[in-house]
Write a structure and sequence with these properties.
It is a single chain. The protein has four domains: 282 residues, Cytochrome Bc1 Complex, Chain A, domain 1; 197 residues, 2-Layer Sandwich (Cytochrome Bc1 Complex, Chain A, domain 1); 245 residues, Metalloenzyme, LuxS/M16 peptidase-like (Cytochrome Bc1 Complex, Chain A, domain 1, 2-Layer Sandwich), CATH 3.30.830.10; 198 residues, 2-Layer Sandwich (Cytochrome Bc1 Complex, Chain A, domain 1), CATH 3.30.830. Helix content is 44%, strand content 18%. It contains 35 helices and 29 strands. The strands form five sheets. Strands 1, 2, 3, 4, 5, 6, 7, 8 and 11 form a nine-stranded mixed sheet that branches. Strands 12, 13, 14, 15, 16 and 17 form a six-stranded mixed sheet that branches. Strands 18-19-23-20-22-21 form a six-stranded mixed sheet. A hairpin with a 4-residue loop joins strand 2 and strand 3.
Amino acid sequence: MMERNQIYKGFRVLDIVPVEDCSSSGIYLRHERTGMEVFHLLNDDKENLFAFAFRTPSRDSTGAAHVLEHSVLCGSEKYPLKDPFLRLSNQSVNTYLNAYTASDHTVFPASSYVKADYFNLFSVYADAVFFPLLRPEIFSQECCRLEPGADGAPVLQGVVYNEMKGNYASFERVASDEIERAVLGGTSYACDSGGDPLAIPSLTLQRLRAYHRRHYCARNCRLFLYGNIPTEEQLDFIDAAVMQRLGDGGRAVPWPRTDVPRAPLPRVHAQGPADADDASAGSGGKGIVSLVWRTARSLDAVNISRFSMELFFLDELLWGDDCAPVAKALLESGLGEDIGPQTGMDLGCRFPTICFALRGVEKKHAAKVQKAVFAVLEKLCRTGIPQEDIERTAMAFEFSNREIKRPDGNPYSIVLLRRCLRGWLYGAKPWETLLFRSEFAVLRRRIEEQPSYLTDLIRTHLLQNELRSLVTVVPSARWSRSRARAESAAAGALLAAKGLTRARRELEAMHAFQNDDSDEKNAARVPGISIADLDATMEKPSLRKTEVLGVPLYVSREPTNGIVYFELSFPADTLPAADYPYLPFLAYAVPQVGWKGIPWDEAAALVGSTTGGFGAYTSTLHVPDCSVQRKETEPYIGRDWVVFRFKVLEERAADAFRLLCDCLTGTDFSDTARLEELAASYFNSLKSSVVPSAHIFALYRALCTLNHNKAVDEIWNGICSLFTAEKLYKSGGARIARRMRSLLARLRQGGALMHVIATPDGAAAVRRCLPSFIREAEIHAPLPAAVQPDSAFYALTKLPFKGRGSGELFVIPGSIGFAACAMPAAPFGTQECVADSVYAHYLTHSLLWKEIRTAGGAYGVYLSPNSSSNCMRFLTYRDPRPGDSLAALPVLLESAAGESFAPEEVVQAVTGSYSDEVYPITPSAKGRREFLWALCGMDAAMYRRRLRQLLSIRSADLQKAAARCAQNAGECGSKVIFCGKSLLSPEIQEMTGKTISLPL
């Protein structure tokens, strides 16, 4: 173990502290010569993570920080390939491999649970960030370039450029940017660190290289380490890979001297993207109204740990959910439709902001929103904050600290990294913002000992804080057309600056560079691991089936840190197909409307102070061919479900079951005003998700005719759900109440299935509660059979299209596209299915990446199998040429079919696919995975066999997979495109045939 003040490989140990919240020792070091700082959370976790973080404040909106983040990963001194990051991701078993640009810093994190792989990732990343080549061709590829458009006029293309065009096509994101600018004017945060497509073309390679020299130096670097690899071993690597090759480390990057915030604008009126003309835009159209404050002091002038804890608690207390006092009052005011996603705290910059946003507000009512917010805050300060609101907020904090999480499937160390940087970048010790428990205990004590503590915070940060702005943003097609004209003008300006000859020369040079295969001789430089480093073992399953009073119960005994996860599943397929479209809203609404005479806000407060989560959702499960026979004998396999769930501390399990029972038996949907609020929120959330996630919506459409499961997926989660949400929104509360009341009553008559994930003590506590719960909640047994033929569900996926054809075209705001299609693949459980998966992974990270992302400019491209449905899925993301991408797929698959696979390529493809199959998961996720396997007629033995098949893949298997893909390329199912009007072409319309404009 290292000691304080020890010097090792030039790094002095500044401090060693216990970080009990993370079950770690924190080792804080600084390199004597270069000034690089290192913080290692040393613990027993074998999933190690590193992250290089640099301060990267922006002086303009050219997106230099963002372009640099992309470009450094495209070739470095030690790895002089044009795509080392791509090759690395294709031959690594990483559990996280990415980079991101925040408002004032850039981070390069990666993790793996295989030690050799971890240091391979470390080697490529370290060389990339400190010694990139930053070639002109990469700049053209990743930043932007001029290309001839369909009509011959020059258009701008580029990976970052197209990514940010997608960002500016989202009304919600444009509204968020306006909020930031309103209170952060005069600072670097008023610039767009990701890049404004109107400003990106003015960035030059010379400026980018200068930006790298200034910001990517050792003295400006914070290196975060996490896991069980000894600190000394990590420093040995860093010294050899980086420190011995660096000079004096450069100069530290202070926050810009010009970062002196101006007084916020009291009122801001702005516009954002829209699909169709809004006659009222600019005068009174509905949009988002936000009241946003900037805190009086910057993060580098406060005790960050205490300051952030206070603000987070205040944020959760006032508008953390619909029953929080400010949120509730504004929802009931009738001024807007639902709480905007911009609501919340932002501690991602030196000048924290606090925002409350209301969506669906008429522009003329903006001032009333501000008045209503202040009225609630003033009342709280006069009368005090109800104790139940404090307890509800405290429970949310307690639960978030105890629960073992992998947010979005990522390592929990990513959460710790972000928390650490929240203080470290602004002058705090790196562990100070990790001490959640102790800081929260101090906060609780202050609240208990000082009755006015929270109201004083409200006065200081909100009521008496003049650093605020009222921001109104409305959608407008005029805004969209103005942006399109400005983008065209930017292309013309760049052409005028470069000249046609130089623009053509640069484009030809980039294409020649992309098509040059000479760097294959350097491919072996990118390190990888061997198949021998992998194994086909899996953790022992814990799932056991039993029953209570005839109701099936599955139990997963897992180390959940004292938390009980319980699910009660009702079969949805006992209902007619015509009821299906409304079940997701039923699941959304039931836990939020009150029950047994208790108003919705009181019920929500009770739930919040009792549990760590309470809700419902819909789920449809497909049975692979190899398990069809089991479906005929076991009535719970391959069903559609409406699932009610909660998570609760073991000691509160009985309270949670009482709440669930009351919800199921006492919900009568009599509060029609609340139902209308929920319908508006549901519809608005779906609308705002379409543009950012259009590739997923496209995929649902492309697959919806394959089988029952995919049809239901589209009905519940795809564009069909948007039309259902619109219908509910326009129905009125009384009609919604009648439908929901009928649905819930009939759903509960169809039997149920139970599942619990808990420690042995937690499982025992649940068993004690279940008999009385089953009787009082009137849970029936056994499960009845499904009733509707699949044809009824296929009929529900039909939409009111114009035109004819096998494909579908959806017109959305903005000038970017998304595409999807599907084709047949081998059935699950076969060696061919595994080979298809490996080949799809290989092709995604080689030929498709090169042709569609690198050359075509799409931000993302994916080919992946859906094994249970015997299909291969293709999709593109933020694609400037979605039609060309779909047209190119069969050609690319056919061209790849004749290639052979060298032994090293097989190893790379297998190891790259391995991490898609084997990855660390939380105890609760493990229990849920095994339960879902059971509901699909599968088990752990099938997956062990699949892993053995994966590790036995050979070149001949991949060649056969390539031949199958080429043969099936002509059988691509429905081609689906989502794109803006500016991308429409005769080719796209001919390819898709049917067109519909989405009212977003």
